[in-house]
Amino acid sequence: MLNADFTSIPLAKLEPENVYSKPTEMIISGLTHYLEPPLKDAKQQLCELVNKQRELVSQLHNENMSISEVQQSTELQDVFTEMKQYHTKLLTIKRDMRLLHSRCQKLKRRALKLKDSKPEEEIIISKPVQLTNHGSSQSPNSSFIGI
């Protein structure tokens, strides 16, 4: 009878020898040699990019924190409240200035009309006085005195 114990046989003899193992190893080492430097450069660039992104995120976080602190500031809120009040005052002053300007324009037009009509009124008023003076032999003051 044969001994069924296979432990005494070396493993190398049990496995068939792969004919393609040596060319496969050469192709793999060639591809690795060819692709490894660009991949290492890409990995380094990605690491640098990730580090820069982390720095930017931390800077943005700090800026957001400072902005939120400023927004929570009571002084800033007071300034905005005053700004609203001054804006309403400014609008009121503008409205008043427009009103005063329109009144001033109306008064100027009225003054021009009065200035133009005043000589006509003087002519109209002076004619009846001249007629009464020429028509009677009495002096103009005599009618008031009763002479």
TrEMBL record:
GO cellular component, one term: BLOC-1 complex
Pfam families assigned to the protein according to its UniProt record, in alphabetical order: Snapin_Pallidin
Superkingdom classification of source: Eukaryota
Protein name: Biogenesis of lysosome-related organelles complex 1 subunit 6
